[in-house]
Design goal:
By secondary structure, this protein is an alpha/beta fold. The chain has two domains: 123 residues, Quinone Oxidoreductase, Chain A, domain 1 (Alpha-Beta Complex), CATH 3.90.180; 131 residues, 3-Layer(aba) Sandwich (Rossmann fold), CATH 3.40.50. The protein is built from eleven helices and 13 strands.
Length: 307
């Protein structure tokens, strides 16, 4: 890596979610070689650049261009190609959590069904980072969302928070399985798109309520159970099962296209149509507390490490 192509960064503010460090919770398509610096998301400020650097300048905000850069640090030197400049007129939390979840949400809403204003989208894990982004981006596009969450002691508080983001309907996994859902879909258009981050019985229920010819996109498997689709749903409703992985999307598209996606999301942020997920800021030296908190059930707030 030629020195004149390097950018020297100081990381600051909200960093990657602590839970991402726990690879034992699931399967990751990309894992760095050890030893490695943890952290997959974050925002940094450029403090110096080499003589051949043209894309960024001192004072600019930047985020990683690809996964695995390692954001749990206060300073670093990277090649210009490893970074993407982002506007510094958006909230710091939004910049630090911009590169994965909102991108995933936007692409899933845009790439699998030709949705029109008034169409419905159903999703599980609706209080996750991706789920919160789906709610807001869908609302900006004029789409109606049916948001499935696990039941919990403070379900009304969670429901109110998601509706404040733009969720039209919030229902529990148990409610989704009830016979009364047939009446629900007399007033709400059957969704043409389902977004699945859970798998198992939850994904089967999403499929049951999809409109004929609809698509379910799987981007996670929190339940660690397979997606099971009945033969009748595939034959008689002609449903489509797809998968999405942002890292693969970035491999299939140019850096300029990814930068365009980032700037589109920044426009939504400026317009007040997209905010960062609910976050709890934790100093880096207290990382163990952040990890322990992230493992507790029904924790909707993301643990964000601050440098």
């Amino acid at each position: 890596m030629a020195a004149q192509k390097c950018c020297c960064l100081t990381y600051f503010g909200e960093m990657t979610r602590a839970k991402d460090a726990l690879s034992s919770l699931g399967n990751y398509g990309l894992l760095p070689k050890l030893p490695a610096v943890g952290g997959n998301e974050g925002v940094g400020q450029v403090v110096a650049v080499g003589s051949s650097v043209t894309g960024v300048k001192p004072g600019d905000w930047v985020i990683p261009a690809n996964a695995g850069l390692g954001t749990w640090r206060t300073e670093a030197v990277f090649s210009e190609e490893a970074l993407i400049g982002v506007p510094n007129d958006i909230p710091l939390q939004s910049a630090a959590t911009l590169g994965v979840n909102p991108c995933t949400a936007y692409r899933m809403l845009m790439d699998f069904e030709q949705l029109q204003p008034g169409d419905s989208v159903i999703q599980n894990a609706s209080n996750s980072g991706v789920g919160q982004a789906v709610i807001q981006i869908a609302a900006a596009l004029g789409l109606r969302t049916i948001n499935v969450v696990r039941d919990r002691p403070d379900i009304q508080k969670l429901t109110d928070r998601l509706k404040n983001l733009g969720a039209e309907h919030v229902i529990t996994e148990e409610e989704l399985r009830k016979h009364e859902m047939k009446n629900f879909f007399k007033d709400v258009p059957q969704p043409r798109l389902a977004l699945n981050c859970v798998g198992g019985k939850s994904s089967t229920e999403l499929l049951r309520h999809l409109a004929r010819g609809g698509t379910m996109v799987t981007y996670g498997g929190m339940a660690k159970q397979p997606v099971i689709a009945s033969v009748s749903l595939l034959i008689f409703k002609d449903l489509k099962l797809r998968g999405f992985w942002l890292s693969q999307w970035k491999k299939d598209h140019s850096p300029e296209q990814f930068k365009g996606l980032i700037l589109t999301l920044c426009d939504l942020i400026r317009q007040g149509q997209l905010t960062a997920p609910a976050c709890s800021e934790v100093p880096l030296q207290d990382y163990q507390r952040a990890l322990e908190t992230s493992m507790q059930p029904f924790v909707s707030s993301k643990q964000i490490l601050t440098m």
